Amino acid sequence: MKSTCKLCGKEITITKWHVRHSRGKYCSRACCSKDKSKRVKRRCKYCSKAFEALPGNVKKGYGFFCSHSCYSKDLIGKSTNNGKRNGQWKGGRRIVGGYVFIHNPYHPFPVETNYCLEHRLVAEKYLKRFLSPSEVIHHINEIKNDNRIENLYLFKDIGEHTSYHNSIRDKKEIEQITESNLLNCFT
Question: Looking at the 3D structure of the chain, how many domains does it have?
Answer without folding.
Answer: 3
